[in-house]
Amino acid sequence: MKHFFTFFLSIVISSVFAQIVEFKASNFKDKKEEFKAIKAKLDQADEYLTLANDAVALVTNPGDNFIKALNIYLEAQKFNANSARNNMNIANCYLYTNEKYKAIEYANKAYKLNADIDPFLYFIYGQTLQLQREFKDAKSHYKTFEENAKNKYVEEYKKLMSKYKKECKYGEEIMADEKRVWVDNVTEVNSAEDDFSPSLSVDGETLIINSRRKNSHTPKNGIYDSDIYQSNWDGKKWSSPKNVGAPLNTEHDEAASALAYDGQRLLLWKTDDDGSSTIYESALNGINWGAPHAKMSYIVKKNQNTTFACYEPLDIKVHYITDKRGNRNIDFSGLMVQYDNKWGEGKSVSHKLNSKFHEESVYIHPSGEIMYFSSQGHNSMGGTDIFVSYKDELKQWGDPINLGYPINTPYDDQFFAATANGKYAYISSNREGGSGGTDIYKVTFWGQEKQVIVDSEDYLLASIAKPIKDKTIAKEVKVDQKSLTVFKGKVVDAITGKTIEASLEIVDNANGKTISTFKSNSVTGKFLLSLPAGTNYGISVKKTNYLFHSENFNLPSDGAFNMIDKTIELKNIEIGSKIALRNVFFATGSSTVTDESYPELDRLVKLLNDVPRLKIEISGHTDNQGSDKLNTKLSQERAEAVMTYVANKGISGGRMTAKGYGPSQPVANNNTSTGRQENRRTELEIIAN
């Protein structure tokens, strides 16, 4: 029996080792020329791999060396699939591509063929275990690598080894605190290639993505250049992405990174002729994107590559990714109005947010109080994780918070674009189980059971696919709904109904300062804006030969999210046209004009100066509460107060009359507080032109 067992064991060992065929001349005596050719290529691949691994160890950019090496190793694999070293090298390369999951198969095979082929295999195998969330076994293999590798290797990878072991620790902690979130693959926008960096309009109806799917350009190392695509929400799903074409897309890499909050501008980066990358901006001309121009001044671009960038609500800063410190970090640059609107030198966003490793993307929520960014540092569980930071009472960015599993995995999870109410977001991930490479995913935050949302936004989201995890929910994730109003709509001619390209201006009524100016779309007349809470806003809409339109929004700091969709009808300047001055205010029960009214009244002065032939009636109106006689008297005094202000600005009194109508001309039902508020108004009417 003992002899039989020894014989059986020798057969098993012989059959296993018979499968191992390394790339040695003695193993290919009958294929000498073929071996010679493939061996020469392998030597070149080894050089690429060494350069790439050295760059990773130094936390610098490996360029396309992993891809170039991988293509050769895969070619060699067809010639000989049973080399432990070649399988190890293929796994090594795949770990630094957007098909990381493919490394698992080759690392397993190398490990089975000969686990001792090279101590470096334990390092690679540990990474594949980490991808599979086998954190304990991954740490064990990292330790084996440290114990068996030459001191040179251990020293080179000391920084990474420390990082990976910490990631395993963080991974165990994060997996034990699974968040109440669904993550769905947005299959209708994804391809078999890389689809990444989603940008979302604040109303959730336009999605811009980047893709390396097949195009008309010549691929490099088997990979097509990145082009920009657009998809639109039809109420149920996203449309098939359409290449936006020239002038945005060229034969080089372009990648969009953020839509402006008004939906009319787009930040992107592209590769310049010298091989460097620069941030550009394109404006929407009707339904077509215009030629991109460099967004920031030379001082920002100097001696660095700048890539993924985002806007912020005040539109005077740009946050972006830069490699000027070697690794990629988040910087910001501000618009210097006092220096002819040049952009200031970039500064680090915060030592709390920038790590010793790579940050890959940044996104400022429309509230201006929340930053989402992706990073390989902090308490990442592997690859790139997405973090959130909140501004504190001093308006400084707070410590980064990992968004947790299943948003984050040991793969590369990055980019973040949220709907304005914060309940949904779109991210990119190269996790296993997607359509191929990096895919776009939708995140649904379950949050608290009762969430106050004004207006329906259900059309934005409903789960569009089965979640990648089962529906077992652990801890609740509170959806942080910063008070925000999204004001969307379109501008049309009040008589013809045709869309109008008009100028919109947002003013802080407290101090009269203009916060932002922009235009409605020249073809669709559409506009978008988001208004953070805690401010009383005046919004005016202007167009040559039309009466301006104004809106007032008083957004308390503790208000809920609102979405307002409104069609604004501009009235041509002709006799009989009326306009309500919604941003004219009086002290309670009196005719004293408050300071908050000055921006609105100054616009009226400008209109009268711009159109000297205009004559107007300024009318005061009240609700029906109280005595008609007193209301009529108050409305007359208020109309006269407005006329006095305008006259004091140089407008001839002969061009104006004042009339108080009291409650006699209601525009809404006086039985409700909202209706009564609508009725308390100051109007002007064109009486001569």
At a glance:
With about 700 residues, the chain is of the alpha+beta class. Helices cover about 25% and strands about 30% of the residues. It has 13 helices and 35 strands.
What's the structural blueprint in terms of helices and strands?
Blueprint: H1 2-17, H2 32-57, H3 65-79, H4 84-94, H5 102-114, H6 120-131, H7 135-148, H8 151-156, H9 158-175, E1 181-185, E2 195-200, E3 206-211, E4 227-232, E5 242-243, E6 254-259, E7 265-271, E8 277-285, E9 288-289, E10 293-294, H10 298-301, E11 306-310, E12 317-325, E13 327-336, E14 342-343, E15 347-348, E16 359-364, E17 370-375, E18 385-390, E19 401-402, E20 413-418, E21 424-429, E22 439-445, E23 453-454, E24 484-493, E25 503-508, E26 513-519, E27 526-532, E28 535-542, E29 546-547, E30 549-555, E31 561-572, E32 578-580, H11 598-610, E33 615-621, H12 628-648, E34 656-662, H13 673-679, E35 681-688
Parallel strand pairs: 23-31, 24-31, 33-34
Antiparallel strand pairs: 1-22, 2-3, 3-4, 4-5, 6-7, 7-8, 8-9, 8-10, 11-12, 12-13, 13-14, 13-15, 16-17, 17-18, 18-19, 20-21, 21-22, 24-27, 25-26, 25-28, 28-30, 29-31, 32-35, 33-35
Helix pairs in contact: 2-3, 3-4, 4-5, 5-6, 6-7, 7-9
